[in-house]
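hey all, quick one before standup. I had two proteins in the batch that finished overnight and I want to keep them in one place so we stop losing track of which output belongs to which input. First protein below, input sequence then structure tokens straight from the run.
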Amino acid sequence: MKSLRIDVSDCKYVDDVYGRLLAILDAPEWHGHNLDALWDSITSDINGLLPPYCIEVVGYKDVPEPVSALLSRIKAVFEEAQKDENIRVQLRFG
């Protein structure tokens, strides 16, 4: 399983998180900044990064509440993809 790390310590807005995450996923430029688009991309083959992989999120402890809430929802999307679609993707907080 490929391991990657994303640092969100200076993310002030949810779009900052999407920008970092989509870059690490090597998502296409037209990828939307929402959870439905994220689901579609991690359960298909549109990203340059293909499963299996694990993304470790660091620097999350002092981010604004909207960013923290989004990170929790993104983690849930990854967990759902792993459980429901049997796709080997993980997002964890380190």
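OK second protein, same deal, sequence then tokens:
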Amino acid sequence: MGPFISVQTDRPDPEILARAADILTAGGCVVIPTLCLYGMAANAFDEDAIRNVFAIKERPLTNPILLLIKDRRAVDELVTEVPPAAEALMKHLWPGKLTLVFKAAPTIPDLITAGTGKVGLRVPSHPVARAVAQAVPFPVTGTSANISKQGGIADVRDLDPRIATGADLVLDAGPLKGGSGSTVVDVTYTPPKILRQGSTPAAAIHAILEKLPSF
């Protein structure tokens, strides 16, 4: 079981972030807070680390895993195309609770895409999650910190023992607001398709897309 370390949301301790970055770089797993729920971060380019996340969560390998990235600039190295609709959504709704699904670059492991050829990306709005993403030179997994098919966790005290035991570090930012996860939009379609309704309202997405010349 990895240690539970309290972390301030508004000012994450650089030493704690460095410790998390070292663990991620070494192929470990870190439980991190996002805006609504706790997630499991691992190096998205390390297949052993990804398999470990799947094993801890008891998640089928046929399910893709979204990635957390540090900023908009990170997108270009991870996808083959950035449609105008994606640019608009990123400009207005990132950082935030919006995951955009792109055509994945060849460098993205099949374990992440589950063989779909697509990858979901998000810039997190929670200060700790974003600081962790910025502390490493690679994207990290953003899957929820729960056993597959169980509900998301808004308080580390509610972590399943299998998650707590499997993680190398748990960053405890206290109780989160809970609720639904991110809204997932596939921007490989024209117009983009909402795959999962989450915290970002569909109306907010449509309002942005309707202003584009091609819509």
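Flagging for whoever picks this up: The chain is about 25% helix and 20% strand. The chain has one domain: 4-209.
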